[in-house]
Design a protein that fits this description.
about 15% strand; binds magnesium ion; binds shikimate-3-phosphate; alpha/beta; 5-stranded parallel sheet; binds adenosine-5'-diphosphate; Rossmann fold
């Protein structure tokens, strides 16, 4: 049976870090949407934002989900993917959606100096906190399972995610 595991949540919540580790734990192939999009587009995420604008990037994300191969795998989404209703529909129809819930404090410490996230580059801390609050309800609505990450190591979160995937697959 085809079964995808999608990781959603705000920038810096650990989607990419956990996705890679979960793939290793569950022996399932792993794809990071941002990395796949960079390969297809042959340019970086900041370059895509700068040259084409955010709306274009959002369309590329939806096309990726629509066309991605039929295979059991782990997919780390980008932080904006769960904001779009069609994206959420595709994810829920083709697999299990895990929301990595992190505090804004943790997130800010992790992303504030990252040059590869254009939204961080173009926003103040206050604006990002507003965006975090705004997006939270979308993640909650899109998810099957919430995973709280505060005060947990990557290993602990990965093991808990693996437990949930094993528990819920085939349902
Ligand atoms: N629970 C955690 N404990 C320690 N470091 C973490 C944790 N979650 C994420 N990180 C680190 O924070 C950074 C951002 O995580 P990343 O996986 O890129 O987030 P996302 O893909 O959700 O934007 C990475 O360096 C990652 O290793
Ligand atoms: O939250 C967002 O809108 C974005 C998150 C990024 O992915 P991460 O969540 O892995 O940082 C990346 O897709 C792009 O910079 C836009
Ligand atoms: Mg990521």
């Amino acid at each position: 049976m085809m079964y995808k595991v999608y990781l959603i949540g705000f920038m810096g919540c650990g989607k990419s870090a956990i996705g890679r580790r979960l793939s290793y734990l569950l022996k399932m192939p792993y794809y990071d949407m941002d990395k796949e999009i960079v390969k297809i587009q042959k340019r970086t995420i900041p370059e895509i934002f700068e040259q084409e604008g955010e709306e274009y990037f959002r369309n590329v994300e939806t096309e990726f989900l629509q066309n991605f191969r039929n295979e059991s795998c782990i997919i780390s989404t980008g932080g904006g993917v769960a904001m779009n209703e069609e994206n959420v529909q595709i994810m829920r129809d083709t697999g299990l959606v895990l929301y990595l819930d992190a505090t804004f404090h943790d997130i800010w410490m992790r992303i504030k100096n990252d040059l590869n996230r254009p939204i961080v580059q173009n926003s103040t801390k206050g604006e990002l906190e507003q965006l975090y609050k705004h997006r939270k309800r979308f993640y909650k609505k899109a998810k099957h399972i919430t995973i709280f990450t505060e005060n947990r190591t990557l290993k602990q979160i990965t093991e808990y995610a693996g437990y949930q995937v094993n528990r819920l697959k085939g349902e």
